[in-house]
């Protein structure tokens, strides 16, 4: 009994060391994911002829419960164990991404999932946060030892991940990882000439994708010509956002969401805007802004280069993904099929987002000697 009591006491003390504002933001996002799924679920189930109106909402609640467990488990890891766990996930998930492109079921022209009947797995969602941690490890080692090829290893890992994702194809995730790696390279002190070379490579890659991926070309053309058939989803999303006004139509009162494919996933922000209005939409954006501010400000005070890069990269991963999702719903970017972290329906998306935030909580815990200083000013 004494041993069990000691373990509970140690777990309680560890929980007290978590960053409370980040933890509160996370719990609010989990709750909003369930709430907005309840708003989108009836329309989504009606479109695919599922009798249970709140089928997606019930499953989203279960995914949120799993996400909380994943987040707290990841948050309990020490930095060294976190590196090992992330490395194992990369070794496991990267081949699965390539395998999904080969044998996975085709859904809307893409092969990104493994279907096990009672659940489906999208390995790229689990790969992303682990890859960010491994990149941070490699880049921090290159900062400590200039001869260590950390940047080269990071670029090779990105190339392997991009090849697997483009084979699926999943252009949105490929671009997201490129943006996060670019930010981490800047933070690690990469020379400007390499940034210029990276920008040129990104421009060349964008042209090649437009040239050789018909699906991407159609979406980009629809972005510049939204009146066509390909721009239907984004046009309906804009209609839904406009119909919500300042205060929204009210929970369950949305109408345009019934004409929105993937209302519970890729366009959940538009559904939330129609039913809960502009104020709720701004509140959701503000939550991700608070996540960025709190996470990056804490990361900037960490002593260790690896912990700094990893925390900043993980926060950037979540916030940039949220920004892309919202921008697509507002017709500021071509449609990409990007989920909104913690909010969009999906077990893989929820697990990946929870894993990223759990890793952040682990790195940003109050530990002796972890931070250069505790507040805004040095003592």
Shape descriptor reads: globular
Distance between the termini: 43 Å
Helix and strand pattern: HHHHEEHHHHHHHHH
Q: Compute the number of strand runs.
A: 2
In the residues, how many domains can be counted?
Answer: 1
Give the helix tally: 13
Strand arrangement within the widest β-sheet reads 1-2
- Low-pLDDT segments, ≥5 res: none
Oligomer: single chain
> Structural class, please?
mainly alpha
Compute the CA-based radius of gyration: 21 Å
Rounded mean pLDDT score:
86
Share of helix among residues? 55-70%
Proportion of strand residues? under 5%
- What kind of sheet is the major sheet? 2 strands, antiparallel
Descriptive overview:
The structure is a single chain. With 379 residues, this protein is mainly α. The protein has one domain (19-363). The protein has helices at 2-16, 20-47, 55-75, 79-103, 123-144, 150-167, 171-187, 192-212, 214-224, 232-244, 268-299, 305-329, 347-363, and strands at 114-115, 120-121. A two-stranded antiparallel ribbon has the order 1-2. Strand 1 and strand 2 (120-121) form a beta hairpin. It is globular, with a radius of gyration of 21 Å. The mean pLDDT is 86.
């Amino acid at each position: 009994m004494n041993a069990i009591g000691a373990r509970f006491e140690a777990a309680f003390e560890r929980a007290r060391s978590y960053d409370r504002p980040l933890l509160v933001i996370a719990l609010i996002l989990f709750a909003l994911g369930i709430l907005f799924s309840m708003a989108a679920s009836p329309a989504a189930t009606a479109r695919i002829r599922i009798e249970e109106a709140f089928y997606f909402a019930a499953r989203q609640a279960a995914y949120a419960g799993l996400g909380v467990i994943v987040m707290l488990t990841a948050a309990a890891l020490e930095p060294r164990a976190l590196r090992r766990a992330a490395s194992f996930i990369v070794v496991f998930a990267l081949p699965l991404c390539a395998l999904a492109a080969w044998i996975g079921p085709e859904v809307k022209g893409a092969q990104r999932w493994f279907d096990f009947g009672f659940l489906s797995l999208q390995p790229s969602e689990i790969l992303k946060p682990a890859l960010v941690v491994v990149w941070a490890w490699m880049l921090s080692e290159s900062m400590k030892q200039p001869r260590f090829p950390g940047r080269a290893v990071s670029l090779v890992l990105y190339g392997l991940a991009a090849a697997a994702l483009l084979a699926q194809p999943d252009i949105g995730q490929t671009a997201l990882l490129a943006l996060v790696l670019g930010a981490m390279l800047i933070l690690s002190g990469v020379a400007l000439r390499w940034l210029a070379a990276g920008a040129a490579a990104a421009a060349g890659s964008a042209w090649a994708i437009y040239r050789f991926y018909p699906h991407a070309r159609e979406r980009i053309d629809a972005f510049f010509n939204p009146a066509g058939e390909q721009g239907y989803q984004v046009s309906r999303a804009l209609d839904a956002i406009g119909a919500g006004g300042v205060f929204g139509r009210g929970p369950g009162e949305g109408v345009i969401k019934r004409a929105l494919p993937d209302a519970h996933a890729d366009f959940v922000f538009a559904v939330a805007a129609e039913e809960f209005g502009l104020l709720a939409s701004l509140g959701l954006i503000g939550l991700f802004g608070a996540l960025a501010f709190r996470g990056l400000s804490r990361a900037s005070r960490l002593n260790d280069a690896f912990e700094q890069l990893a925390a900043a990269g993980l926060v950037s991963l979540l916030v940039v993904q949220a920004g892309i999702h919202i921008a697509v719903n507002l017709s500021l970017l071509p449609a990409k099929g990007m989920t909104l972290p913690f909010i969009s329906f999906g077990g893989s998306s929820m697990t990946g987002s929870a894993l990223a935030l759990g890793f952040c909580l682990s790195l940003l815990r109050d530990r002796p000697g972890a931070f250069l200083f505790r507040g805004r000013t040095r003592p």
